[in-house]
Amino acid sequence: MSKEVKLDLSRIVFIGRTFEEYMSMFNLTQAELKGRSILDCPAGACSFTAHANKLGADVTATDIAYYHDYEDLHAKGMKDLEHAMTKMESAQTNYVWDYFKSVEELKQYRYRALADCAEGMKNHPGRYIASALPSLPFKDKQFDMTLSAHFLFMYSDRLDSDFHRKAIQELLRVTKQEIRIFPLVSLSGERYRQLDELLTFIHQQGCSTEEITARYEFQKGANSMLKITL
After folding, report:
1. 153 pLDDT higher than 50
2. Can you count the helices (H) and strands (E) in the chain?
3. I need a labelling partner for 89 at 20 to 30 A (CA). Which of 65, 170, 198, 206 fits?
């Protein structure tokens, strides 16, 4: 996708998670980050890249949203957050309020993630690469680890099993050690129906898989991570 045919900004929802949420979602430790090349795909408005790089990691974030200027994305993210938090007030029963104690606390986390991401894009633009699965502009085995949050499996009502297979195949191509995907459910909270079929495909590529309970659950039922070891 070229800049001339980039996705209309109005169709992008630019909301992300904090570095701390990533560490919990993916059961990561700071020791696992140091000295490793990591891809966050798709990264959205998350702050993981900005913070992990300060801790000695070498993180690259990629997302279709990055075809747009960081100032435009920050402005869009602010509007998206206001809209999302308004809707959250009436949908609180769909979530587990352990990690966040209130909608207001959630709101502060989301604003912080957005601000950190925008600052990272401004100061280190080379770490924020515009692209979209299932075709990434990276070399074979370029990254030690790939993290993928809140995209694969979640939108199974819009992205079919063929897309998921191609997306996983592309992540396998650019990764040399391991891939972690969170969560394993759709937006309705149901386990991805074609997951077992996809696991068979992954095993056929010579990889091993493990479903791990994460240290994080916000959407009800979204508390498992898939770890793929290459």
Report:
1. yes
2. 7, 7
3. 65
